[in-house]
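Thread: quick sanity check before group meeting

JM: Hey all, I'm pulling together slides for Thursday and realized we never actually wrote out the predicted structure for the chain we discussed last week. Dropping the sequence here so it's in one place. If anyone has concerns about the input, flag it before I start.
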Amino acid sequence: MHFRSITIAILAVAATAISSAQTPAPSVKAHPWMDASLSPDQRAAMVLKELTLDEKIQLVHGVGWGPLRDGSPIPQDNNGGAGEVLGIPRLGIPSLQQADSAVGVRMSAPEGRYSTLLPSVLGAAASWDPEAALLYGNVIGRELRAQGYNQSIGGGVNLARDPRNGRLFEYPGEDPVLAGVTVGHVIKGIESNHIMGDIKHYALNDQETGRTIVDVHIDKKAMRESDLLAFEIGIRIGNPSSVMCSYNKVNGDWSCENDYLLNHVLKGNWHYPGFVVSDWDATHTTVKAAKAGLDMQMPGQEYFGPALKKAVQAGQVPQARLDDMVLRLLRSMFAAGVIDDPPAPRFVVDPFKGRDDAQHIAEESLVLLRNQDILPLDASKLHSIAVIGAHADKGILSGGGSAQVDAPGGNILSPRRPTTWAEPVYFPSAPLKYIRELAPDADVQFDQGTDLASATSLAKHSDIAIVFADQYMHEGVDSHTLALPYKQDALIQAVAAVNPNTVVVLVTGNPVSMPWVDDVAAVMEAWYPGIAGGQAIANILFGKVNPSGKLPITFAKSEADLPHPKVFGLTDDMNDEESVARHYKSGFPADQTEGTRFGYKWFDSENKQPLFPFGFGLSYTTYKYSNLQVNAKQRTVTFTIENSGSRAGTETAELYVQLPSESNEHFRRLAGWQRVSLKPGEQKVVTISIEPLALATFDTTKDDWTWLSGEYTFSLGGSSRDLPLIVKTPLQ
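JM (edit): ok, ran it. Output follows.
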């Protein structure tokens, strides 16, 4: 969220609204709209008829910054979250209690609550497991419910156009199909708890640098086939109650007053029935925003409070438009179940179930990138292990900003004081502890890694050196580089020079470059692995769990290999949002000339070799693919897969398609996948359903999807660059 000052006048108006909304509620059982056999739309229409103009206005804006900012008015019923919209007690309509919940419920500590820190969303996407994504959402939903919230404002599905994005850990990677499926299932999991889900940030909010002033330039075809496709699939699967519009401009108009994005595509083409809520302070006008499709201003009422009432009374905003705004909110509340089955905190959050679920997701998400026959470690053969760096003796790093979950007991590096917005927070899941548990007879020693002489001395005299390297990322700031910070590349190189059995564990929010990769024996990408990250890492290092994660994002060798070597608008002297805003007082453009060609599609079309390709991930066993058959009419493929190794494992079989030559595309598209668990020597015949829109192009003249005639090339294998099976066929 972007924090701007709120005027005293607005605070006074908000306080008046809050006071008037706190009158006792009469019994609502007799209201006809409480008949759950009616449709959400019928029930919403019945409520609408009973609302006064002031009550309608009250439902389309928030109460202000509340607990987020000292001095802001806080209603008596406020739940301590990021936002609140006052309800209508006399009609049985509860207040909307909104919580940031990208990787777990935020702001629990001030209320004495506990929230589970899940792995990063990017990590969850690396599982390629819709069931894990469903579990991810279920954890968030049940903890929101236990804490008294009725809406999640997580659900980030912005694509990784730039791998240096500060919020990349909140997002599900670079491919629109994988991203949409992942976040769609997260939303389903949340809403299964009768909690309202959200999807954000709509749209093209793909960098943090200048996010409140940047103007993204991109053509409609590329937009629909990339970033908007992720939203389209996510909305189709998850049916979120709300769509949060973003800070940035798109082709000249702010996203929250962008008629093409909101009215034409979202509500028109996709027939989305829910409501559009602004990101915090992303509303810029009253009349234009209302007419363009924004339904709710957050967190305050500068534009959708008294100003909107006057605009309606003056005929500048039609009464029918205001009614539509309110109807969309009400029908979403009925559809999600927050009126029929409102959250009523009766149980303490179960931290043990949360930890177990987080560990399961993490163990599916960790990606083994390199293994020179050193992993899994055999504890019986190890006498000494050096564990070096990244506070691995204390805990595991998490991502920051509005996604920051409060650590139990506080930040273990500074437990006696509240954490700040951009302060790295470590959670108590120390890898060192769990490595010692799995190697009880070995001498396991730790070094901070801040002194090269000390670190290399320990590594030199150990059988194995495990170097942990981390990278803190947070909202509001992008990284200038793909390199690890704080001279950690030099640390890894120095350790590898004295110990050929060096294993590197990366705890990062983003892909990083690895100038030392050929000098180490193994590399594991752990992302931000959550509250049970230490356990999950140790279990994979020692083979208790066979790694199955695959990259949801390409790892480039250097910035020079990216579509844009520098982040739009970012210069060497810019380190925060304020410095960017000072430099660009009137904004700046982000010309997405690459269109749909970013991530693996860029590397394929440019014939570039990545450090590690999209979809890549090693296992402790091997797999063989055979007998690919394509049923173009039914949009399915069938194949045989065999575990040809000596360990049980789970492989993600990935299906890609290259469109006919008429498309003029020189890259493959991800079209489907399937996780398959196999015992040693076991074979299975597997069917994958093809995502129809992965086969389509968007025709801007027809304003619709179209499927080209000609030959489609289907390729199947273990990554975007390992596709042994190929079938060419026209669609029927």
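AS: nice. The longest strand covers residues 649-658. Confidence is low (pLDDT under 50) at residues 1-26.
JM: adding both to the slides.
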